[in-house]
Amino acid sequence: MSYQHQYADGTHIHFPLGKVVCIGRNYAEHAHELNNPVPTEPLLFIKPGSCVVPAAGGFKIPSGRGSVHYETEIAVLLGKALSTQPSEEEVLDAISGFAPALDLTLRDVQARLKEKGLPWELAKSFDGACVLTPFVAASTFEDLAAIPLRLTLNGQVRQDDTSAKMLNPIVKTIQYMAGHFSLLAGDVIMTGTPAGVGALEPGDELILALPGAIQVETRVL
Ligand code: ZN
After folding, report:
1. Band (1; pLDDT cuts 50, 70, 90)
2. Which of 52, 95, 107, 155 is the least buried, fewest Cβ under 10 Å from its Cβ?
3. Model confidence over 196-217: pLDDT tens digits?
4. How far is the CA of 44 from the centre of ligand 1 (A)?
5. What distance in angstroms lies between residue 140's CA and the mean position of ligand 1's atoms?
6. Which of the residue ranges 22-36, 86-100, 124-138, 182-196 would you say has the lowest mean pLDDT?
7. Around 121, how many Cα atoms within 13 Å sit in the side-chain half-sphere?
8. pLDDT for res 12
9. Burial of 4 (0-12, 13-18, 19+ CB in 10 A)
């Protein structure tokens, strides 16, 4: 199904989907659960817009390429371009919304790539590798260091954390990204996954939530 940005209240979002810029290992407990070191500098990677699918109605996962892991993350929608060294105020002004989202990962493929020191695209950029829900307005959260995030999988809470645990807070992460390459209106920032990642199977039922703000039910087709 083709994807278009939208707000949870039905308000139209006029800018097109751009790229999805992600930060890896942004929660210490998640780095530890995969036996990865905690990075000293933000670890960035980019998913192309072509891999984004909406959560509504369910989503497909690849078969025959090893385990497919969910990583539930707070997604940030940008409504303005940012480049060079944006101030904190400029970053806050550019944020249009927040959503719970999935950074799907071919974990076995990623492990092989990591072993060889190769880039992660084969594990992170397949069609359907980014599942986005509608966004709630940026004004929903007064404190960006207190955004809750939860994944319920088949009735069990599997990831439940807040942005307070991020090693690089949201604004600093976006400042760092924009310091290295331009971010545009319609780009999505994925802010890293907390501990509790795991494999998905067809038929799994998921509830993605920023508790108190938005909750979206979806399933693996
Ligand atoms: Zn991730």
Report:
1. low
2. 155
3. 999 999 999 999 999 999 999 9
4. 10
5. 23
6. 22-36
7. 5
8. 86
9. exposed
Predicted TM-score (pTM) of the model is 0.97
CATH topology of domain 20-219: Fumarylacetoacetate hydrolase; domain 2 (3.90.850)
Q: Are 30 and 192 contacting, i.e. CB atoms less than 8 angstroms apart?
A: yes
Cα 22 to averaged position of ligand 1 atoms, centre (Å): 6
CA–centroid distance, 194 to ligand 1, in Å, is 9
Q: How far is the CA of 130 from the centre of ligand 1 (A)?
A: 10
Q: Which residues of 154-184 are buried (b: 16+ CB within 10 A; e: fewer)?
A: eeeebbbbbbebbbbebbebbbebbeeeebb
Give the distance (Å) from ligand 1 centre to CA of residue 155.
22
Class of residue 143 by CB neighbours under 10 A (exposed 0-12, middle 13-18, buried 19+): exposed
How far is Cα 100 from Cα 74, in angstroms, rounded to an integer?
A: 5
What are the beta bridge partners of residue 208? 151, 216
Please report which confidence band the pLDDT of residue 2 belongs to, taking 50, 70 and 90 as the band edges: confident
- Residue 94 to residue 92: CA distance in whole angstroms: 5
Quote the pLDDT of residue 141: 97
23 Cα–ligand 1 center, Å? 6
159 CA from centroid of ligand 1 (Å): 13
- Tell me, in angstroms, the distance from the centre of ligand 1 to residue 175's CA: 18
Structure tokens at 218: 């979806």
